[in-house]
Amino acid sequence: IRAWASHLRPFRSGPAHLPRRLVSVGDRVYVTLGFGAPVSVLDAATGERIRTYNETENCSEIVYDDGMLYLVTGVPEETGEPPAAGPYHWTPALRRKRLLALSADTGHVVWRANAGDTSQLMPLTVTVGDGHLFFHNTSALICLDATTGSEQWRVPRAVAMSRPAWSS
Question: pTM (2 decimals)?
Answer without folding.
Answer: 0.83
